[in-house]
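Q: What residues go here?
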């Protein structure tokens, strides 16, 4: 079960996949795919199963198939580094190309991918930031950013305590004025939403929309536990 939230007066849906759905604009936004992170680590001697890109694309294809959007926005760090396009398996590259050719696809540049990959078979428009109606999409939240900002970059994650156990997971973070998306990539990891780097962007408090196996539930800042 997903969770509804409002940002700058716009109704949005926080999906358990980690995607943000904007129903009235037939738009999906995802952040921090970090495609080919596994192969980047392998080059440095840290061997991980080399299937992270495929797993991420499987999840992305599933949400696109389910929601049938007209537009997909990737909020930066879609590729782990500038060599990802050369390392990605040809079948995964072809699948990504098929996805980008099926809808209006927008790549917002991030700090890991500050330039578009060269020689890639996929398509899509490239932007440093993008304003659509009442929302502005960018990779990293601006410290003085006002209402309307949708971003990624921080890979927010949080924890809550119940009577039985402690639950930890990725989360969306919002105060109704701005929203930070969780990382969508299979190997992207997470960063504590209570860390000042994130919480400091929400001076008046925030809600964390914690992702479970099949649900997203909202929790106020004061109910969260440090990771």
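A:
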């Amino acid at each position: 079960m997903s969770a509804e939230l409002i940002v700058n007066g716009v109704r949005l849906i926080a999906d358990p996949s980690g995607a943000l759905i904007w129903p009235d604009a037939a738009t999906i936004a995802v952040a921090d795919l970090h495609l080919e992170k596994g192969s980047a680590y392998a080059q440095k001697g840290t061997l991980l199963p080399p299937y992270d890109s495929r797993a991420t694309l499987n999840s992305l294809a599933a949400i696109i198939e389910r929601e049938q959007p007209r537009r997909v926005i990737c909020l930066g760090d879609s590729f782990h580094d500038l060599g990802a396009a050369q390392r990605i398996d040809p079948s995964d590259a072809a699948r990504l190309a098929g996805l980008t050719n099926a809808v209006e696809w927008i790549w917002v540049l991030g700090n890991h991918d500050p330039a578009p990959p060269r020689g890639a078979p996929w398509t899509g428009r490239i932007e440093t930031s993008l304003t659509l109606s009442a929302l502005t999409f960018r990779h990293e939240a601006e410290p003085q950013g006002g209402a309307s900002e949708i971003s990624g970059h921080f890979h927010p994650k949080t924890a809550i305590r119940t009577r039985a156990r402690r639950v930890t997971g990725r989360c969306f973070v919002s105060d109704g004025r701005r929203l930070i998306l969780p990382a969508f990539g299979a190997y992207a990891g997470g960063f504590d939403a209570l860390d000042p780097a994130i919480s400091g962007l929400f001076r008046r408090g925030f809600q964390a929309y914690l992702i479970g196996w099949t649900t997203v539930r909202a929790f106020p800042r004061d109910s969260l536990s440090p990771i």
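A: Context that may help when evaluating the design: The mean pLDDT is 93. The domain at 3-223 is CATH 3.60.21 (Purple Acid Phosphatase; chain A, domain 2).
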